[in-house]
Design brief:
two-stranded antiparallel sheet, four-stranded antiparallel sheet, 0% helix, N-terminal domain of TfIIb, 25% strand, 2 domains, elongated, mainly beta
């Protein structure tokens, strides 16, 4: 980018005779604008396995399948917005999933 030596505004144009839009100063040099960007190679993409996805809080919950006393839980709005949310449980032992409506 080149600036006008008289008024300081940006000189426009890419031809040999570049002209200032404000004071009509003419430059004899050719403007050359270059842009470059370095993009670094990204690292490996991590793979999530089934064991890594159990990051839910643990609560007391009786598994109907194996009768274990601990379960992960999470909530989701599965019905209309004016109704209560649904609480899902997943057994920490056998991974059986069930739900409880409030």
């Amino acid at each position: 980018m080149e600036f006008c030596p008289k008024c300081g505004s940006v000189l426009m144009g890419e031809k040999k005779d570049t002209k200032c839009a404000r004071c009509n100063y003419k430059s004899k040099t050719k403007l050359k604008i270059e842009v470059s960007e370095k993009i670094e190679a990204s690292g490996e993409i991590g793979v999530i396995t089934d064991k890594d996805t159990d990051v839910f809080p643990i609560t007391n919950g009786d598994c109907p399948k194996c009768e274990n006393k601990e379960a992960y839980f999470w909530t989701s709005q599965t019905r209309a917005g004016d109704e209560a949310e649904t609480k899902f449980y997943r057994c920490t032992k056998c991974k059986h999933t069930w739900r409880e409506y409030r």
